[in-house]
Write a structure and sequence with these properties.
Rossmann fold, alpha/beta, eight-stranded mixed sheet
């Protein structure tokens, strides 16, 4: 019996005997994460226990986080949260890479704190995070006000599938100077501050989105697929792949998608962080990106062998 069949059998038994409760919701989230993500977490942990460097030749790690519910503070109550179409983003990305006919090694893994630490320790050529992001200002006056003034957050998943807010300061504690990662792509709303945190920890190139405005999921998926198609073609540098993907979005026939192009930003090795309250510095940085004015000698991230996409 497959794991999926086992889950279905377990759920049928629970539904047959119990009404749909929050405990059932928690169980469903737990089972989904533990068994329905291609066994990534279990495989990684088992290989780690054997002392194997599971990521020594990993080209792209796709980390997703989309909690189905937000657990309220000091309560067993839950709030609904918009679901991201990370499966669609993952499918588009795989299709784009398959078209290159290169033996790109990819992995999909759920965005928990435990898995983030594992990937940062093991290394990967490219780390792509698909999930929710939020500014610290959004927590002011809310029941989660303890996160106000602690930096912008990424919303990861807990081990039972609820939210895990990762603040800028907490992320710094996970990052270290010896990370074997050449590019981080933070595909979430309001992710600029998170992007700078990765950059300050030694990641040369970081792609993220402007802090002050959310980004449409459809535009994010299109940009992601086009960017990685160029990046893993062996023909373009990271900066060139970014510029081509941004222009591709800007030329979209749907104006609602085209208008999202300016929200994508890239942080390069020589870029310096600016005070987020300095509007002139922010404007100058954004305009430099839009005018494609980058002093970056980056090259193609590698010469990949011909072959099929490895997932």
């Amino acid at each position: 019996m497959s794991r999926v069949d086992l889950i279905n059998q377990l759920m049928e038994q629970y539904y047959a005997n119990l009404v749909y409760t929050q405990e059932i919701q928690r169980l469903r989230l737990f089972l989904r994460q533990k068994y329905c993500c291609e066994d990534d977490e279990q495989l990684l942990m088992e290989m780690q226990k054997l002392g194997r460097n599971v990521n020594s030749q990993q080209h792209l790690t796709f980390m997703f986080a989309s909690p189905l519910v937000i657990q309220r503070q000091n309560s067993d109550d839950y709030l609904e949260i918009d679901q991201l179409d990370w499966p669609g983003e993952w499918a588009n990305l795989r299709k784009a890479l398959s078209d290159n006919n290169k033996a790109i090694k990819t992995r999909k893994i759920c965005g928990t704190l435990e898995n983030l630490q594992l990937i940062l320790d093991e290394g990967t050529l490219v780390l792509h995070f698909s999930g929710h992001g939020q500014t610290e200002d959004a927590f002011q006056g809310s029941e989660f006000r303890e996160f106000h003034n602690k930096g912008d957050v990424l919303i990861l998943e807990s081990l039972v599938g609820t939210q895990n807010f990762l603040t800028k300061n907490q992320l710094r504690e996970y990052l270290h100077k010896k990370m074997d990662i050449k590019l981080v792509f933070v595909a979430s709303c309001h992710s600029e501050q998170t992007g700078w945190t990765f950059h300050e920890a030694g990641i040369g190139h970081v792609i993220c989105t402007r802090r002050e405005t959310p980004i449409k999921d459809a535009a994010q998926k299109k940009f992601t697929a086009r960017f990685y198609r160029h990046l893993f073609s062996d023909e373009f540098s990271i900066c060139e792949a970014f510029d081509k993907a941004r222009r591709f979005i800007a030329s979209d026939s749907n104006p609602l998608i085209a208008d999202e192009a300016f929200k994508f930003i890239i942080i390069r090795p020589k870029d310096k962080p600016y005070n987020i309250n300095n509007q002139k510095a922010q404007k100058d940085f954004y305009e430099k990106i839009l005018r494609n004015q980058h002093d970056c000698p980056c090259k193609s991230i590698g010469a990949f062998e011909k072959g099929k996409l490895q997932v």
